[in-house]
């Protein structure tokens, strides 16, 4: 029995809730942490939704992940960060990350689709007040965009830290959703004379452009060569 | 005076409102229709926010633009489309489109940023009930992803049209926001030994992958060769 108990256990998946079970294509939904983390770690841009005066607001922003926490940051003057700070209970948010992987072209307009991977996180965002957690979160944000970069730039000073607000959102009410593969045309459309298939899509990085004031003796770091 | 009056007038920009004037970096905001349309037309994926039981929900979805209207579609069973249909007054939404154009790496962690173009549309989405407008909107959605594709696929039949709900959102309360250029480091950081500059980012299309059941005599159409 001891041997069996020493085998690392798979962490429990996120518990599905009414909000994280889709009404459509529920078979495309996943709740395991590995899938969710891999989708979150492959991007750095999220769309953060919150409610202001009863109406929805959706803003693009960068994020970082540390274990089961997501962090977003902004000026202490920005609207959602101010709102989260004013409300002791935190700010209800929905944070969504989407990768487009392909355009799915079917013979019928109806079956056109998109290959994608997305994660939707529901929860309450709280302002981070602990200075050590704030520093750690800002490093995580920079490293989430370019791994290795936080250690290769000047850390925030006291004034910059004071001007920056950080929100933490715990990964608890979370789902992933993905579509892969080719078009699913109806059998009766098989002989229509239209091309069908998938056009792959992926973000590409161009050659890094040095800043105007960059000293010529500073070479491109390895973590950017391999990006 | 007649000559002056015959000069085509620039269409009036969108009127800024409390919701479309950002609290931060207001100098990055734009309200002219040309800028807004060009950002919307360069993508096909939006993040649609709405409020459900008082909490925000943000879902990725495709969209199309026809003049000053945006269209999104989905199953008649999907949550936001059902909500918009149930409410005679329509569904308050926020529709956001974001392009990432570059990673801005400054010498200080604080001045790290992102080059981007985004559009945020606030408004009330209404279900499209007119069959002609619905057909036109679905064509626009397909052509927005791949220009020329709607005419090169089988149009939706009556059953498919009945299963598809379309929402219209008018472009009225709209703003664009963009950041371009290199990092804005503080002068006192100029001599720090860190690489600084911009890593360009853009979506790239891979070689189209034919569907498993595609007849070998159907060639790749020109509109996909030039995508």
TrEMBL record, chains A, B:
Residues covered by region (Disordered): 1-25
InterPro entries according to UniProt: Pyridox_Oxase-rel (IPR024747), Split_barrel_FMN-bd (IPR012349)
Cross-referenced PANTHER family: 5-NITROIMIDAZOLE ANTIBIOTICS RESISTANCE PROTEIN, NIMA-FAMILY-RELATED PROTEIN-RELATED (PTHR34071), FLAVIN-NUCLEOTIDE-BINDING PROTEIN (PTHR34071:SF2)
Name of protein: Pyridoxamine 5'-phosphate oxidase family protein
Record organism: Streptomyces boluensis
């Amino acid at each position: 029995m001891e041997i069996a108990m020493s085998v690392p256990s798979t962490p429990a998946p996120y518990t599905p809730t009414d909000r994280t079970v889709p009404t459509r294509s529920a078979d495309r939904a996943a709740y395991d942490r590995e899938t969710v983390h891999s989708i979150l770690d492959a991007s750095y841009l999220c769309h953060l939704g919150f409610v202001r005066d009863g109406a929805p607001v959706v803003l693009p922003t960068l994020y970082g992940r540390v274990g089961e926490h997501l962090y977003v940051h902004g000026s202490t003057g920005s609207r959602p960060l101010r709102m989260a700070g004013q409300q002791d209970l935190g700010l209800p948010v929905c944070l969504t990350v989407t990768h487009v992987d392909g355009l799915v072209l079917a013979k019928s307009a109806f079956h056109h689709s998109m290959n994608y991977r997305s994660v939707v996180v529901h929860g309450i965002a709280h302002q981070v007040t602990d200075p050590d957690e704030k520093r750690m979160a800002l490093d995580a944000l920079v490293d989430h965009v370019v791994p290795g970069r936080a250690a290769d730039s000047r850390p925030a000073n006291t004034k910059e830290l004071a001007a920056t607000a950080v929100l933490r959102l715990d990964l608890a009410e979370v789902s992933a959703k993905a579509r892969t593969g080719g078009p699913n045309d109806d059998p009766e459309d098989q002989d229509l004379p239209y091309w069908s298939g998938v056009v792959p899509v992926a973000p590409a990085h161009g050659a890094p452009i040095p800043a105007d004031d960059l000293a010529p003796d500073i070479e491109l770091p390895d973590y950017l060569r391999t990006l």
